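Field notebook, page 401. I keep forgetting to write these up properly, so this time I am using the form the group agreed on. The chain and the ligand, zinc ion, are recorded exactly as supplied. Prediction of the bound pose follows.
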Amino acid sequence: MYHVRFISVTENYDSDKTKNNTGGIPVTIQFLKNEYYSRDLSQKSKSAKYSKMQKGEYIQKNCYYGYKKEENTLKIDEPAANTVRLIFLLALQGYNYTQIIKELYNRKIVTPERYKKEKRRQKIALYSPYIWSATTIKNILSNEQYIGTYVMRKTVIKELGEKSTKREEKDWIKIPNHHEAIIEKEVFKQIQKQLFHFKIKDTKQREYFLKGKIYCGYCSHTMQRSRHKYPILSCRHSEVDTSFPCYHLKIAEKEIEEIVFQMILKQINMIKDTKQTSNIEIQTKQKVELQNQIQFYHKKKEILYEQYIKGKLTEEQFIKINLELTKELEPIQNKLEEIDFQLKYSKNKNTLQNQVKDIIKDTPLLLNKELVNFFIDKIYIFKENHIEVKWKIKDFLQKRQ
Ligand SMILES: [Zn+2]
C-alpha cells in the first residue's frame, strides 16, 4: 500500500523480484524472523563475509595491485601504488594504452604479475618483465578499489562446479570508504569519462587451426595474430624494443599453415609405411631367443661358481673362465637391447597407425584442428621462415632407426 520495497542483503531477499511467488512482505518477514527462510551454507558464509567487509575488514586471500593485506585490512603498498598513480596521471594527460605501455616500459616498471612474484621471491623466466598489456592498464584505470571502495559480488557462480560469470554492475555490492584510497575520486571520475573513448583491440580471435600453438622462437611468448583478411603472426613482445632478437618477427598465417601441413603429411607417410610394423612378430621371436641365450650363460656362470666353491677349480681358473663367459655374453646383450628398441619403435608406430587411420579418413586431406592437435604440441618461429615443431608424437622424420 505504501510502495515499500523490502531488501534483505544477508538473506538475499528482494520483494520486487519475488512479488508473485511468495506470500508477500508480511509473510516473508515472519519467515525471516523465525529463520525458516531456507539458507544454504554458501549463502551463510557470504553474509558473514559481507558484514566483515562492511566493518572494513579484508578477508580475501589476494589483494589488488597497489595494496597489501595487514592484520585483515587493506594497506597501501607504496611502490605499486606509485605505479597506479603514474598510470592515472598519464591517462589524465591524454596518453592512450599504447603510449602508457611505452612509458612504463621506458621507466622499466615491472608488470603486476612480475611484481607479485618478485615479492614472493618466486623465480619466473619471462623475457621482458616490463611489457604491460592494455587489458591490465584498462583494469587498473577502471578499478573502483583505488578510490577506497570495496566491490563485492562482481561475479556469480550459477551452478556448482561451473565457472563464475560476471554480474551486471547494478547487482554489485559496493562498500565505500572501506580502505585508504590511492586515487582521488574526482580524478577517477574524469578517467571513467575518458575511458569510454579509449579503444582496446578486440582480442577475441576467430578460430584458426594453429591457435595456441605458435610461439616466438626467441622469447617463447605466444605470437599475436592480426585480424587482416590474410592474418600475420607477430611477436608483440619486441614491439617496444629494437634490441630484441625477435624485433619485427613476422610470418604470414597462410605460409606457416602450408609448412606445417607439409610436415604433418610427411609424418603421416612415415607412420603409414608398414615396413617396420610387419616385423613385430619376427622381432618378438628374436627377443625371446636372445633372452634364452642370456639365461643359458647365467646358468653356466652359476655352475662355474659352484665348482670353484667346492674346490674343483682354482681361483685363477675361475676368474679366467668367468671373464671368457662375460665376453661372450656382451654382444648378445647388446643385440637384445637393439631388438628391444626396434620392437618398441614398431609397436609405437603400430598404435599410431591405428590412431591416424581415424584422423585421416577424410579425402582429400586438408589441414584441420584435429590433425593439428593430434600431431603438434608447439611451433616455434624464427627469422626467415625458419620454424621448429615440437611434436606430440615420436618424430618419425628425425630419428629413424
Ligand atoms: Zn619474441
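OBSERVATIONS:
- Residues 203-401 form one domain.
- The pocket of zinc ion is lined by residues 216, 218-219, 221, 235, 237-238, 246, 249 (CB under 6 Å).
FOLLOW-UP: compare against the apo run.
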